[in-house]
Design brief:
heterotrimer, A mainly alpha (about 300), B alpha/beta (about 450), C mainly alpha (about 350), A: mainly alpha, about 5% strand, B: about 450 residues, alpha/beta, 7-stranded mixed beta sheet, 5-stranded parallel beta sheet, 15 helices, globular
Chain lengths: ~300, ~450, ~350
């Protein structure tokens, strides 16, 4: 029984991490059809921002307030990734609208540059980020320990999901975004500045990746290659869920997260990874556009 | 029109930049190779139609310099570990040059990037040996990169100094193994744990050759000691999610985890271990791939109390080490730390230099002959090069991580342990049939 | 005259490249270049072959496969296993013994002979590509979705090859093997090296000629039509998925041939060839060289690899990373036609 509860919790945690890393991607892919191969590097940027805030607190502020570095690093990571994302959009992505496949390649070039920049600035070795005091350890219920880190991450993801949903479906900007997504030409004729919508959306997507980086810093090492581990799962979650639907990404992440954890119970992690990927690929054969398809009359969506 | 001319300008800028770089690079190369033009072809196996070999000194070391190669991953996932090793090698080269060089020649290092890809290691190794014509190469970290270049060093009869502890089962005549063989790191560690009263072992490693071979050895040894292996798990190389593995560990209820995880996985594993309120008091771990660098990245408070097994720590006593650590910190920064692989790489350069001095030449065969039985004063203490298998006889030290981020020795063997990469001197290993066929 | 130039431009360029390559061994024998250059250019020829395959599916058909390294690796592993078994004389290899196997597993049995190995090199990648292509294209998965699937596939294969280490030697891969002609290193094997080099060159020429002839036929035109307007082609009655599957299988077989050639020069193969960045790097070659021109792919492969060979040493390593990233961005965003395409447009502009 304990095993099952623990597996469920682990699956929830794994899914929440995948969801956080793919939320930004889902938003940009859904809206602009741009697959950002440098998404992993925005996660890295968020993680390094956390490190910088961590160091600033450690060096310049008294020990008693040290733990609050983490609360500050979340908005900081969002902001830094937002700004860099905006710059990237203006310089590179905006020239690639309509050319989805080329955006894949161009952003791969960006990813190479960003990784090398991180190496040049912070060194090739990883950097240390210690968990804040209020997140160390875990909650003991019976025989099982639920780590505070992971509970926090699940809560953070739900919060982000809620915020994104609110913005997309309950705000003016969100209506503009959805309008542009469904029919760009029409939205433009109605006076929506689709280019501005694009930049802000892309920057928001990158900002979300930055927040994901914040959580990654708690769970593992922070180095220049940290982003590469998350991109395949994020892409799979986005493609599985279907373009443009938050619920789809949510479900996609959960499928990948839970199935990964459950398959790992029976076999080694390398094989589990391969199996999960193959399941997703087979599934995509049946539903090539993912779980939830935004139906439109256009032939070439 | 404006856009077109902007595009043109950009194109010319990029092309111009590339050409400038090529020219600059070419210049560098010309300066470095000027010692070579006009000198005879090296007597190495890849010389052209005229295989007449002139004396090696005149070509490898003309005009008072000798070329060595540094072959490490400077980009990619392995760069995290390998950069500190390269730094130690550069430090050693600088010190030797300051003291007058080797046989009166200044050492000129040529660095090549292996890019964390063994095929690139192979290409660059050939480039260093045949084109740059280095006298020797210091490099590699992962076993896959070493195995990819092993044949090349044997074919061209050059020499590689390999600074990392590894899984053994190898003794190439063209590789000098400066790191620990399994009987100098793994076997004594298991013996130590058994002496301390640990009976249930859980083996956790990344999925590649070092952990697999190490675990094979450990299982045989544990069985021979009459103890039990309660679990064996392999994580993917880049794995960051350890919740399932932690669940399996909790189920198996071991006394001690033998950890052969690699690189960044260590950071994730220990951080997630501490999430569960598990410290070294609840569950001890013995790691073979965690050195001072990793302690820095993981965090000393998480790792404190855990055990590691190496031959060298930054805290190892001795004047040689004190001098090494001081120079290392001076050159690279006070917050940098030295580790066993860095120490071994440093030793490798000095060992090569001393072997050349003893041999009176840079020729590979002469250097190897002089190296056999050579004693080198290393930061880890005095080590002796074993002429039969090209490994070092070293002291084994079990260390414990302290809260200040450094590792302190808690047990050491009485003297140096002779290297036995094939474990032929261990009854239980021979019986288990661990040795490879070739 | 311009018309003639336009018509034969790409072939002329390719012939120049071939002549330059053919002349290389002469330079070697005369002492101007070292043997490692021959070996290195041998590897580049293998890269050029897979680049041609990639150009066929991407430049001409518009299918971006970011996982072609998988087929390259399959071909290399196949040839590598054969060479390894030659070295052990058909007996079980050391890594299999370490992994607990007692006799040669069924999966490696066909690789004991040359015909068996050759058949498998064509068959296995071809079958896998055929299977994937058939289902994927029939279900009209295209564009970025296909690219992501191809990434996932090669990543899954990477994990599998590492996990099944008794069969594949995991992370270390197949190492310590000599080429099909025996050792090519060292002074006494110079003739074998040159012979192997020319074999590689002939294979490259063959692959190029096949691809080029194919692209000139109606088949090739339909591929271009699929790239530029898939729906129209579909409505015109052509079975788009069949064409796509066919060209995908063909490019997979080319990739396998490239892998088999590569390992003869490299002496080892590891699962690193199945990582995503390896596959994306191959696409970079085609993008910079010029997609849709075949010779552009060859040029890109040679150029980028040669620059990396020269520039990723010493202090230049960091700079080279920035240059590669920048080149990639610039070539994809601004110079869609790549080097060859750009030259082609300038020399023979369309409005004549």
């Amino acid at each position: 029984m304990n095993q099952i509860i623990l597996s469920l919790f682990n699956g929830l945690s794994a899914s929440s991490i995948i969801l956080l890393t793919s939320l930004g991607l889902a938003v940009t892919f859904g809206l602009m059809g741009v697959i950002n191969m440098a998404h992993g590097e925005f996660i890295m940027i968020g993680a390094y921002t956390t490190f910088v805030v961590h160091e600033l607190f450690r060096l310049f502020l008294p020990r008693t307030v040290f733990d609050f570095y983490y609360l500050l690093s979340i908005p900081a990571a969002f902001l830094v990734s937002f700004l860099i994302g905006m710059v990237l959009e203006k310089l590179v992505i905006s020239r690639l609208y309509g050319r989805e496949v080329d955006s894949l390649l161009a952003t791969w070039g960006v990813s190479i540059i960003l990784q090398q920049t991180a190496r040049s600035v912070f060194g090739s070795q990883g950097v240390a980020v210690t968990s804040p005091g209020f997140l160390s350890g875990g909650l003991k219920l019976g025989n099982i320990v639920f780590s505070y880190n992971r509970i926090f991450i699940v809560a953070l993801v739900l919060l982000c999901l809620l915020l994104v949903w609110l913005i997309m479906y309950r705000s003016g900007f969100g209506s503009q975004m959805r309008a542009t997504m469904q029919n760009r030409a029409m939205a433009q004729s109605l006076g929506i500045n689709s280019r501005k919508v694009d930049s802000i959306t892309f920057a928001c997507g990158s900002g979300l990746a930055g927040i994901a980086g914040c959580t990654i810093a708690l769970l593992g090492s922070v180095d220049s290659t940290v982003g590469q581990n998350y991109i395949v799962n994020s892409f799979m979650a986005v493609v599985l869920g279907g373009v443009g639907k938050l619920l789809g990404t949510f479900l996609g992440s959960n499928i990948i997260g839970f199935s990964g954890i459950f398959v790992e119970n029976f076999t080694s992690s390398s094989i589990a990874k391969a199996i999960v990927l193959l399941i997703v690929i087979v599934f995509l054969q049946k539903r090539p556009k993912g779980l939830f398809v935004v139906r439109s009359r256009a032939l070439d969506e | 029109m404006k856009i077109k001319s902007a595009k043109k300008a950009l194109a010319m800028l990029v092309t111009g930049g590339l050409l400038a770089m090529a020219a600059g690079c070419g210049n560098q190369r010309i300066q470095a190779d000027s010692t070579q033009t006009g000198s005879a072809q090296v007597g190495d196996m890849a010389s052209q139609t005229d295989p007449e070999s002139k004396t090696v000194e005149s070509s490898l070391a003309t005009e008072g310099t000798v070329k060595v190669g540094l072959l490490h991953s400077l980009t990619g996932s392995m760069a995290i570990s390998e950069v500190s090793v390269r730094d130690a090698e550069l430090l050693a080269i600088e010190e030797i040059n300051a003291a007058g060089g080797v046989l009166g020649c200044q050492i000129v290092p040529f660095e090549e990037d292996g890019a964390s890809d063994p095929s690139v290691f192979a290409t660059k190794a050939e480039k260093l040996i045949v084109e740059t014509e280095v006298a020797t190469v210091f490099g590699c970290w992962t076993s896959s990169s070493r195995k990819a270049v092993k044949q090349i060093f044997e074919d061209y009869e050059s020499l590689l100094w390999y600074p990392v502890q590894y899984e053994g089962m190898e003794a190439s005549p063209n590789i000098m193994y400066m790191g620990a063989a399994p009987n100098q790191q793994i076997v004594p560690a298991i013996d130590y744990l058994a002496d301390q009263g640990y009976t249930k072992f859980f083996l956790l490693g990344s999925d590649y050759v070092f952990p697999r071979t190490a675990n094979m050895i450990i299982k045989a040894q544990v069985e021979d000691l009459g103890l039990t292996t309660v679990g064996e798990e392999y994580a993917a190389m880049d794995q960051t999610e350890f919740s399932s593995i932690l669940a399996k560990i909790e189920e198996a209820q071991p006394d001690v985890i033998i950890n052969t995880l690699n690189g960044a996985s260590n950071v994730s594993f220990f951080k997630q271990l501490s999430e569960k309120n598990i410290t070294s008091k609840e569950l001890m771990t013995m790691s073979f791939s965690i050195a001072e660098e990793e302690v820095k990245t993981i965090g000393a408070d998480i790792l404190s109390g855990h055990l590691v097994s190496w031959n060298y720590y930054q805290t190892t006593e001795g004047d040689r080490n004190a001098a090494f650590v001081k120079s290392y910190k001076e050159k690279f920064g006070a917050d940098r730390v030295t580790s066993d692989p860095a120490g071994a790489a440093y030793t490798a350069v000095y060992a090569w230099a001393e072997a050349c001095e003893a041999a009176g030449s840079f020729d590979v065969e002469a250097v190897k002959a002089a190296a056999a039985g050579l004693m080198v004063a290393a930061p880890e203490g005095d080590v002796v090069i074993n002429g039969d298998n090209q490994h070092l006889a070293k002291t084994v030290r079990i260390g414990q991580v302290a809260t200040d981020g450094l590792i302190y020795e808690i047990y050491a063997t009485d003297g140096v342990v002779e290297p036995d990469p094939y474990l032929t001197s261990y009854e239980w290993a021979v019986q288990a049939g661990i040795q490879p066929l070739e | 005259m311009k018309m003639k130039l336009r018509k034969y431009f790409k072939n002329i360029l390719f012939s120049i490249i071939v002549l330059a390559l053919a002349g290389l061994p002469f330079l070697f024998v005369a002492g101007f270049v070292k043997s490692t250059m021959i070996i290195f250019f041998g590897k580049c020829m293998a890269y050029a072959i897979i680049a041609i395959g990639l150009d066929m599916i991407w430049g001409y058909t518009g299918i971006l496969s970011l996982g072609h390294g998988l087929y390259f690796a399959l071909g290399a592993y196949g040839m590598g296993m054969y060479l390894k078994l030659q070295a052990t004389g058909g007996a079980i290899t050391d890594f299999m013994k370490v992994g607990g196997l007692s006799k040669l597993p069924l999966i490696w049995q066909p690789f004991l002979t040359i015909p068996g190995m050759s058949l498998m090199i064509f068959l296995v990648p071809g079958l896998i590509a055929g299977l994937i292509g058939f289902f994927t294209f029939k279900n009209r998965v295209k564009g970025v979705y296909f690219s992501i699937i191809s990434q996932a596939l090669t990543w899954a294969a990477y994990s599998l090859f590492i996990a099944l280490s008794p069969y594949t030697n995991g992370n270390v891969g197949i190492t310590e093997i000599q080429s099909m002609l025996g050792s090519i290193k060292g002074n006494k094997n110079v003739d074998k090296l040159i012979f192997l080099f020319y074999i590689g060159l002939i294979i490259l020429i063959l692959v190029y000629v096949i691809a080029e002839r194919l692209m000139k036929t109606k088949f090739g035109k339909i591929l271009i039509a699929i790239r530029d307007g898939e729906n129209r082609t579909y409505f015109s009655g052509y079975s788009v998925s069949t064409y796509k599957t066919f060209v995908y299988v063909m490019s997979a077989v080319f990739a396998a041939i490239a892998g088999a050639l590569f390992i003869n020069f490299n002496g080892s193969i590891t699962p690193t060839a199945m990582t995503i960045s390896y596959s994306v790097t191959m696409v970079i070659w085609v993008a910079i060289g010029g997609r849709g021109t075949l010779v552009g792919a060859v040029l890109g492969a040679f150029l980028i690899n040669f620059c990396e060979y020269r520039f990723s040493s010493g202090a230049m390593v960091e700079v080279w990373q920035y240059v590669v990233g920048l080149l990639f961005i610039v070539s994809v965003v601004f110079f869609k036609n790549g080097i060859v395409g750009g030259i082609y447009e300038r020399l023979c502009p369309r409005n004549e």
